[in-house]
Every structure is written in structure tokens, then in C-alpha cells.
Please model this.
Amino acid sequence: MRDLLPRPTAVHPAPGEFVFTSATGLSGPDDLTAPIRSALSVVPLAPNGTGIEVERDPALQAEAYTLSVTPERIRITAADRCGAFYAAQTLRQLLPDAVWRAAVPAGTRWAVPCGVVEDEPRFSWRGAHLDISRHFMPKREVLRMIDLLAMHKMNRLHLHLTDDQGWRVESHRFPLLHVIGSHRTESMISHYEEDASYDSTPHGGYYTLNDLAEIGAYAEARAITIVPEIDVPGHAAAILAAYPELGSRHDTTYQVLGKWGISRAILSPLPATVDFLTEVFAEILAAVKTPYFHLGGDECVLDDWEANPEIEEYRRSLGLGSMGELHAHFLRELGDRLAEHGCRAVYWDEAYVSGRLRDDSLIMAWRGMQVARRAASAGYDVIATPVVPTYFDYAEVDDANEPLAIGGPITLDDVASFEPAPADWPEEASAHLVGTQFQLWTERIPDGRTLDYRAWPRGCALAEVAWSGSADAEFTGRLTGHLARLDAYGVEYRPLTGPHPWQSGGTGPRRHRPGRIVAADVMTRLDGMTLDAASTRPSM
Ligand code: ACM
Model:
């Protein structure tokens, strides 16, 4: 029972193996056998065969399972379909690596070593965040990411569907969102502190509502919940390029931006904006069923609110003392609208710092563990997403041989040693730390190949932290074996020894600039900002 990743709660190896024959098949309740059948789709299973017995055990916690292998049979118990699916993922890891190929080489011997695995997750939120605004990733990349997350027993895919640089989902109700908001004329290729340069190449794309429904259904079948994000009220240039009347200044020159950084483009907080967004949420939620919806709330430049007499009058009429409080009020109102759909609002941590939100809100603490602890102590459920070590757009090694990254380093060890709920936290706070996720911001991730390189193997380490609670001393050894599975699947991960020659950034604009932005310094600066009000200075 080698190289299981993430590490199960307990593994008891035994001598012998179970060998699949032409008579091997699955038996048990349909809702538990269906996810196993789909996870093992390349393994030949007889329609009415026997040998793999699946049973419900209501005493097990959500997502937990046991897998017991003897020479005579394989027995799986789970309380729910997610547990059954994870048992199948473990079984898949015990089969030959060929099981990760789309078609299996002739003569593959289907055998599983004997023993017992008992397993349950440490955290209920085990996620990945994919920014498809800065660079659009075609649907096939999203479906592939879902498969890779499922392989690692991760259960949330957070899709950053809009930002200054692009709106990424069809709207029947407000079609200019995708007609105008989904593309830009060029993308920035220079780094900070360099003269700005652009690629002079249009970039864009969006998912139809049918695509989104397909992504949601594909994820659900793999025990993954989609968390759509409509990032407001800042990061709104793409929305405002389409519907400038929602802006906080009377301006018809908003554009979908090709430049990276924090823009001043901010939606007006007046009721018309809330009504507009409520209709957008309804369209998205009709396509993808989810109990979580992310509203962003990060990096808002409130200058245009301050300068607008109508917004100032609105603030006063609500009896709010500052524009920061209005920021929280706006985000809370949207949370109320989502609650009517049975959805809990998720926010980046600025929303929590601005003021009181609905009690059922979830906070993603990206500016550090101080704000994570404060929000958890205040009773909010918190997802640990600090820049270090969960921002995988930072280079793993801050070396000139790497491809361009925002900064660096965030190493595999940084991720493997991460403690989302540190031991010195009070118990009430730890109880509200529901999990962690890695972030793939894509300003410098233009395509799926680069996405693979950034996500893996650091994603394997985060999966281990999220599922097993921590990576143990054998993690690196198990990872080495696990990489053969990624090879079979066709993942262009970053080798443990550094990039292949064709993965390096070369000497042109895609070269990495070591030392320009040091991840640890960024983290210290952000951590220090988390007591401030929401307003951020523009950086473009
Ligand atoms: C963020 O990195 N602005 C959440």
C-alpha cells in the first residue's frame, strides 16, 4: 500500500493481493457504486460481477471511508457518495499507474495489495482557486483541473469569473457583460518597475451558461463543489466597460484592462447595482447548483465613492460612519440576496475588516493568519488562503531559470509545512477554520501548460495538508512515487529538481525576475494591513 497521497488516517498493510478477473464487478447501493464505477472507468469490470462489495455505514462521518482488501474480495464502506468516491480514488492509487491513462496498455495486470485503509478528511474545505479572468482557460482546462483535484481528494473549485481584465460567463439578461466584457485588446508582458509593454494581441473568452452547467455537473460527479466568484465592488473594469451606468463616476471611458494591478474602477453601491447583481446571481445559480457564492470585496479603491455626492448622501441616509462601513453594508446586502437562493456568501478578508457581515458568511483570509484568527474568533467560518504559502502564481524557486512569476519563492516545503489552524489558536477559533485552498492567479499563467507547472506538485502538498492535517516525514518519498501517476495522466508539473529546459522562461519577456518581489516580504506587509479599513491605493 505504497505512496498513497494524500496520506490516509490509518493504513494496515497485509500480505497478498487481490487480482481482478473477468468476473470481478461491483455490488452495493447504486448511489455508492456509481461514483466508484466512474472513478474506475478504465478498469474492466463485469456488469453483474462480484468481488468488490460496497456498503453504507452511517456511523462514518461525511466523506470518510474504509477500504479493506483481501485475496478474496475488496470491501468499501462509506456513509455518503463522497466517501465512496474517495475510497475509489485510493483504490485507483493502489492499482498500476496505467489506471491514470485515458486508455490502458494491453496486458496491464489489475492487482491491488492486501490491507486496510481507514480514512477521513481533517478539513471540510479543500480547494483550488482558478483565475480565468486574467487569462481565460478553455472549458477543457477546467474539466481537467476538476479531475486532478478529485485525484487529490480536494472538493472545492473556486472560479474567479470576473475582474478588471475580463468577464467570463454568458448573461442573457445583460448580454453586454459577455459581448463587451469578455475580451481585451492586449495583455501586459512587462514586470513591475519596468516600462510598461504589451503583447498587442487580443485575449478573451467566456463560458456559456450551458458550459457552466456542464462544469457544475462534471464537478458534482467528482465530489467537487463549484464556488463561482463575482468580484465586486472593486476589480470591476470589465463590468463597467459593458454597463458604465453602474459606475461611481460619470464616465463612459471604462475599458476591459490589459494592465495588471489594482484599478480604481469601482461599482456604485446604490440599490440599482444590488438589483443588477441579484439578477446576474440568479442566472449563474440557475446553471450551477452550489451552496457557496464568492462576492470578492478585495482591494477596493473607495476614492470615487468619496467624490460622489449621491453616494455620500446614500451613506448618510443609512447612518453609516465611513465609506468602509458602506463597503461592508453593500457586500452584506448582496449576501442577503444570495441567502434567498440558499447560498452562503464567501468574501476575501477586506469585507470582514470593513464591518459586520451576515453570521453565515465565510472569510478567505488572504492577507495572513492574523486576520484569519480574528475572523475565526469573531465566529465566521474561515478558509486559510494566505499569500504565503497558498499563492501558487509565485515561483517555487526565485531563480532566473524559472518562467515568469509575480515573485517568489513559495517552495514545496513552505506548502507542506503549512498549518491552517495553528496549535496556539484558541479552540473556538480553530473550530471555525474550515479548510484551505491554493490560488492560481493568472496574470502570468497564460495557458494550461503553465497552469500545470504552477499547480503541481505544490497542489499535492496542499491536498495533503487539507486532507491529512499535515504532511509527514515520508511526504517527499510518497510524492516521488505519486508523480508517476501525474506522468501517466499527462501533467506537466514542475520536476522536483527544477524545470525541464522547455519549461524555463528563457531570456525574453517570459523570463523570471528573481528578487523583484519577495513573497515573504509581501506577506509581512499585507499582514500588517489587516487592521486597516478596506480602502486600498490603486497600483495602476
Ligand atoms: C487578492 O489577492 N486580491 C484576494
Notes: The chain has two domains: 10-119, 125-527.
